[in-house]
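Protein Entry — a single chain follows
Fields — amino acid sequence, structure tokens
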Amino acid sequence: MATYPRTQSEISALVESMIAGYSEHPGDFPSADVAILQTARDEYRTTSEALTDAQSAAKLAAVEKAEKLERLQAVMKAQLKRSQVDTASQPEKLSQIGWGPKAESQSMRAPSQPTNLKIIAQGIGGKDNNKGILHLAWEKSAFKRARFVRYYCIERRQLPLNGDGEAAFGPWGHIASVIDNEISLKEEPTGVRLEYRIEAVNKGGESMPSNTIAVVL
């Protein structure tokens, strides 16, 4: 059973077969109008060919447009550089051509302070069950332009007893670095008071230390 074609190529093939069949067997198809069929086919062909030509021309025009745009930008940039030299002593005059002075380079600044340092979990472990385990987490430094964080530095100090039997904190010391905002410490001293804090670091320097937390493991 015949099925009416859907694609343009199938439609074109069928119309050619119809015209050829009507022309060769007019007695079998007395109601057929070959002339109107040929006219409709020819009109379609003309329009289709015109569309193909227009599409080809559009592609060429798009390529040429891109080339001309690239050329235009190169000329504009060259002229702007010359104008910046011309107005070096009075750069505000560049506003007369819709431009402005170069933005000053922004030097790297130290990150902002990490906050809300807290203990997530703690305990005792190790082969001899004499190592402190501590999981810390904190809120990242607020992101600002030119103040991104390269890593976080974890610092610790210990409260030992001095020679007189009085407690005195030792100096802060770096014990680990991470790029995320949490860390698990698995070999911490036990039986002594420990304090921890976090600093954010980038090329511009170190941030203000976070809040300090204290723990005895």
About this structure: The CA atoms of residues 72 and 182 lie 52 Å apart.
